[in-house]
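Try this one yourself first.
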């Protein structure tokens, strides 16, 4: 089910069995230019300019082994209607991604306008991100479906592609749904390093 993800993990020397510790995957070399070359863009300017693009905010979760895994992700998009596919991007040095890859499944929890604190809790490295967080199993994969999110998308890992210092993870949608009451708050938006709301 997650053969592509497992092949990637093996290629960088990451553990691919539940018995191995997911806490310290190897960090691959991520240089895009040689040591004697100048980077084509200033990273600070790149972040500043791209920060003008407002996006929604999600939390990607997985059953984990044995504890659930999750991280905050703004780099998420719908990809295909037939077959139903979505995609998210994750840094190649992420310590959470190998745990999701081993599970081969994930749930995209789309956050509402009042869930900025929840997002911040999943944006940090280490610790028990699920402490005090209410969730139940998503119907198809058992991935954590967070309580009171406006919408959720339950997926299996279909493919993983390398994109510079990130991975592009494609998921096949197995189930999805909304919470009309939670959706009334509107979406949580991220713009220029801060959270905001949508106003018509």
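Now uncover the answer:
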């Amino acid at each position: 089910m997650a053969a592509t993800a497992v092949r990637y993990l093996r290629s960088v020397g990451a553990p691919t069995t539940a018995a191995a510790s997911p806490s310290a995957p190897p960090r691959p070399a991520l240089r895009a230019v040689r040591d004697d070359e100048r980077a084509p863009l200033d990273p600070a300017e790149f972040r500043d300019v791209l920060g003008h693009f407002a996006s929604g905010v999600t939390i990607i979760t997985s059953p984990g082994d044995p504890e659930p895994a999750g991280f905050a992700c703004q780099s998420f998009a719908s990809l295909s209607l037939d077959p139903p596919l979505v995609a998210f991007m994750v840094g190649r040095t992420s310590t959470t991604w190998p745990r999701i890859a081993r599970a081969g499944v994930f749930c995209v929890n789309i956050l509402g306008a009042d869930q900025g604190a929840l997002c911040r809790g999943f944006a940090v490295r280490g610790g028990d991100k699920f402490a005090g967080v209410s969730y139940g199993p998503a119907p198809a994969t058992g991935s954590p479906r967070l309580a009171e999110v406006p919408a959720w998308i339950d997926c299996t890992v279909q493919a993983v592609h390398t994109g510079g210092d990130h991975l592009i993870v494609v998921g096949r949608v197995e189930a999805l749904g909304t919470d009309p009451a939670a959706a009334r708050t509107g979406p949580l938006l991220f713009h220029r390093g801060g959270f905001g709301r949508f106003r018509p």
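Discussion: The first strand starts at residue 55 and ends at 56. The chain has one domain: 3-14+56-192.
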